[in-house]
Amino acid sequence: MKTANCPSCGAPVTFRSAASILAVCDYCKSTLIRHDADLENLGKMAALLEDASPLQLAAEGKYQGTHFAVVGRIQLQHEQGVWNEWFLLFDNQRTGWLSEASGSYVLTFLAAAEAVIPPFDEVALGQYLTLAGQLFQAVNKETARCIAGEGELPFKVGGGYPAPVIDLSSTKRFATLDYSDAQPMFFLGEEVELPTLKMTGLRAREAAAGKAQVKAFNCPSCGAPQEIRAQGSAALACGSCGAVIDIANENHKILSEYHGKLTPYPPLLPLGSQGKLRGAAYDVVGFMRRRVVVEGESYEWSEYLIYSEQENFRWLSEYQGHWNFIKPTSNTPSMAGALTKPKARFLGREFTHFQTATATVTYVIGEFYWRVKVGESAEVMDFVAPPLMLSREKSGKEISWSLGEYIEPAEIAAAFKLPSPLPAPIGVYANQPSPHSGQAGRYWKAFWIFALLAIAIQVFFLVSAEDRTVFQQSLDFSQIPKGQTITTEVFPVGGHASNLVIENRTDLDNNWLYLDINLVETGSGQSYHFGREVSYYHGYDSDGSWSEGNAHDAVVLSEIPPGNYLLQIDPETPPGSNVAMSDRIEVRRDVPMWTNFFLALLGLLTFPIIAWWRSSSFERRRWAESDYAPTDSSDDSDSSDD
Q1: Considering the entire predicted model, what is its pTM?
Q2: Does residue 561 or residue 52 have the better pLDDT?
C-alpha cells in the first residue's frame, strides 16, 4: 500500500494494489498516474452517470474463501445501455473484475489464453474459440466507450476511451477478450449471485428491500406521465406515443419515436403491480408483445419484465394462458448436433429442440435494461425438458440464453393478488409438464407385481389340481338308430366342488355333428344341459389349401359338486349321411384352467396401456406446435386434459 498527496488539492491518495497505476482523487476528481512515488495529474475525470448500483468503492466481500475490497470502477456505455466494471483487490494481492450489467454479475480474472487470440475483426458472433483449454462461444461483440472511472485502476482510462470487447461463454465459465490495449487480454471467470459474495459496505437503499424506488417524469415526446421503478433500467417505452426514452440519462433523451399508430394492449399484470413470487418481492416494470410467423400463421405472446432488489431482473411470459418464469443466464449450454432433433445440455439436464423462429416486438411499454423498440427482432431457438425451457436469442451483436420454468396461472394470480383469476390455459404448451408423466411407469410397476402374484396363484392351482379322468367311452353313431338317446353308465365324481371338462374327439372329415348332452347327478336329479356342434371341413381352391372348424371339442362345467353322474346324449347327424362317425367322450375332474389367468393379465394390462395412451396423446399435442409436427396434426384438440 502506497500513499501520496494529490498534486491538485493535496488530499491523500492511496494505492492499495501494486498493479494499480491510475487513481481518481476522491475530493477533486483529478486523474492521477503513478510514477514510483510521484503522481502526475492528467486533468479532471469525466463525471460518472448516476446509476442505482448497490456497489460502491470500499465495499468488501468474500469469494472462494478469500476476502476482497472494491477499489476502483470503470463505467462503460454501448448501444443498448451502460454497465460497470468494478476493480477488486484480494487479500493475497490478486486482482479481479466484477462486471455488473442489467442486474447480473460476472467475476473474472486476468488469465493466460494458452492460444493465439484472434484479432477483433476476425471473430464472428456465435464463433467457437478454444482458449485456456476450454471451448467458448462468442456471445457478445461490442465496441464500448468509457464514460468515466473512479478509485484506483491498473491502466490509464478516461472519458471517450474505446473498449472493444468480446464476451465468451461456456457451460460453466465466462470469459472476456479485451482489445482496448495493443495486446489483447483474456479474462476468465464465472457468473455469480451477489448474495453469495457476502458483501458489506454496499450503498444504502432509500426504499424497502424488494420495492422499487419510483421516480416520476413526463414523456419528452408527448408529455404523458411516466414512472421509473427498476434500478438499472436503460430505457423506457412510453405507452401513449411509443417513444423510447433514455432513462440512464437525467435529461431523458428520446432514443427513438414510433411513427405508426400505437394500439393499446392491456397487460394482464398492470405496470406497477407488486407481488411476492418464489420467495422474492417483484415489481412489474415492463411489458411487450412479440410475434413469430410460422408457415404464414402469426403467433403472439406477452412478456413481462419484473424487478426485485434481491433477484434483479426476471421475466414472466404468457401465451394462451400458459406462463413461464424466466431467468437470464450468462452460461452457454453444450450443443449436440442431430439430424432429427438437436439437443442442448444444461445444468445436468438434456433439452430437446422444439422450435426456431424470428421473434419481432410488436408492442412495448414500460422500462427495460436495454433500448427496446417496436420492430426489434431476434432469432429465437427453444429447447424443452418439461417443466423447463431453454431459450437462445440471437440479435445483431449478442447471443443470450435464458432458462424458463412452467408456472401455473393460479400461482401468478396469487403472487400479485389479482382481483380475478387469470385465463385458463388453452391447448398444450411446449414445456407444460404432463399430468400423466410417470403414471405409465407406476402402472407398469403395479402390473408386474400383480402379474407375478397371478403367476404364483396359477402355479399353485396347477400343482394342486387333480386333473383326473373319471369317465371315458367310445361311440359309433353309424350303429345307433337315429333319434335314440344314448345313456352312459354311472361314474363317480369325487373330491370338492370343482370343474368337469367334457371332451369329444371325433373322426369328422368334411362333415358335422351336433350333440345335445345332459349331465345328470343320479342321487339328486340335478342336471346340467348343454349342446355342442362339432364340424370340420377342408379342401383346395385357387388360393391353395384351406380348412375350417375342428374335429375336437371341449366344454368346461364349473363348480360341479361330488356325486354319481351319467351322461344322456342325443346325437344329430346330417340328413341322409351314411358316413361312419365315431366319438370318444372323456370326462376329466379338477382340470387346471388358463383362461382366468390370461383374462386377469389382460385386465391388469388395461391400466398401463391407458396411462401410456394418455401420456402419448399429450405429447403428440405438445409436439404438434413444434418444428417437428406431423403433417396431419393441425386439427389436434385444444383441450389440455384427456
Answers
A1: 0.72
A2: 561
